[in-house]
Amino acid sequence: MRAPFTSRARGAVAAGGAPEAPRGLSLRIPSWRPSGVPARSLAVFTRQFATMMDAGVPLVQCLGVLGEQEKGPRLRGAILAVRAEVEGGSGLADAMRRHPDAFDGLYTNMIAAGESGGILDTILKRLAACIETNVKLRRQVRSALTYPVAVVAIAAAVVGVILWKVIPTFAVLFEGVGATLPLPTRLVIAASDSLVALLPAIAAAGLGGSAALRWFRTTRRGRRLGDAAMLRAPVVGAILRKIAVARFCRTLSALFGSGVPILEGLAITAGTAGNAVVEEAVMTTRAAVERGESMSGPMRATGVFPVSVVHMIDVGETTGALDAMLAKVADICEEDVDAAVAGLMTLLEPILIALLGVVVGGIVVAMYLPIFDLIGELAR
Fold first, then answer.
1. Other Cβ atoms within 10 Å of 24 Cβ, number
2. What pLDDT is recorded for position 377?
3. Does domain 133-380 have CATH number 1.10.10.10?
4. Average pLDDT for 119-143
5. 313 in Cβ contact with 329 (< 8 Å)
6. Which of these, 242, 255, 262, 245, lies nearest to 317 by C-alpha position?
7. What number is the average pLDDT over the span 271-295?
8. 3-state helix vs strand vs coil in the chain, percent to 5
9. Residue range 167-182: average pLDDT?
10. Is the dihedral of CA 19, 22, 23, 25 positive or negative?
11. Which pLDDT belongs to residue 61?
């Protein structure tokens, strides 16, 4: 068995020097988006920080200017506090670690690697690109899920209003004229009567079920079951899996290429994948790497990562260019996600519109059938 990450575990940043990762970095698994600080705002701050550092502006002055112009109160306060601590003699990474609500473990570890290697501007550019990519992936998740959920919710609301307000009026009309109702009409009126009679119970059950589901999702078991179900969902599940894999590979490539040790990088990236199943698979891989195994074997054994991804990572381990291969895997997965989301939206739009038309049109036809019968009888 080959022993991976012996020389590269301490990291090479580029074709040049290989700064050793700083000691004492935390293994706490962070979430990608710190509480109260939008990832987009953090990406803009990091990009501007990198540009100013590259232009030769002193560190304290960079933090002062960026802090004063930041509109978000949490990020603004954190930047200005970091500026004061750096001005007082603290290291940038150490100062940022005191503000985990704005700068998570991924951020501070990469900053520490940049400080240690004297390449802070390069690391900031890489970090900004990493955050921007994750923001893009998050938008793609919303695109894949929001549209169908919104259309179904609107359809349910429209049908509910029709059953609640419109159908009872037709029912009274039909009862007044003593019309014989066909089966579709009777079914629609029965559904309307049930909705009106059980509306308070339905509303209470919906609110209670929603609250119970949200609580269950906050538990470890609930999150895992929910994430596993999403990965198994038809069409959308494949997109979500690729998004999680792309996020994992992009983040690990940035960390590993910045000089963060591989074990620490795996612990950090486990929390950035955005899926409990992928997180468990990454931590399982980390445990195997800690025992001296390669990454590709344990990743293949988890069954979470696509075979092509595992194969490319295996090639990266063999050639000693794992960070570059991880970045390539992320590029491929993101391209696949772009194509899949575009195809899904193109396919879903006519299907959902047709479904909404069938449901609403079916109700309308069912209510007009007795009227057609009455007109036919009057015409005789």
1. 6
2. 65
3. no
4. 80
5. yes
6. 262
7. 86
8. 80, 0, 20
9. 78
10. negative
11. 92
The whole-number pLDDT of residue 10 equals 37
Per residue in 132-159, is it b (16+ CB within 10 Å) or e — as a string? bbbbebbebbeebeebbeebeeebeeeb
- Segment among 137-146, 201-210, 242-251, 282-291 with least mean pLDDT: 137-146
- Domain-by-domain residue ranges, the chain? 133-380
How sure is the predictor about 101, in pLDDT bands with cuts at 50, 70 and 90? confident
Q: How far apart are CA 301 and CA 142, in angstroms?
A: 30
Q: Where are the alpha helices (H) located in 178-306, listed in sequence order?
A: 183-218, 220-232, 236-257, 262-270, 276-290, 296-302
Q: Which two tokens stand for residue 370?
A: 């007795």
HSE of 175, CA atoms in CB hemisphere, 13 A: 8
Q: Please list, in sequence order, all residues whose beta carbon lies within 8 angstroms of the beta carbon of residue 205, skipping any fewer than 6 positions away.
A: none
Q: What is the dihedral of CA 232, 234, 240, 241, to 10 degrees?
A: 50
For residue 348, give Cα distances in angstroms to 38, 261, 352: 30, 43, 6
pLDDT band at 149 (very low <50, low <70, confident <90, very high): confident
- Look at residue 138 and tell me whether its pLDDT is greater than 60: yes
**Rounded to a whole number, what is the distance in angstroms from the first to the last CA of the chain?**
91
C-alpha Rg value of the chain to the nearest Å: 28
Measured CA to CA, the distance from residue 214 to residue 207 in angstroms comes to 11
* Closest by Cα among 376, 354, 355, 362 to 187: 362
Q: What digits encode the pLDDT tens for the residues 230-271?
A: 888 887 788 888 888 888 888 888 878 777 788 888 887 886
- Look at 27 and 193; give whichever has higher pLDDT: 193
* Length, in residues, of the chain: 380
- Distance (Å, whole) CA 322 – CA 285: 15
pTM of whole model > 0.70?
no
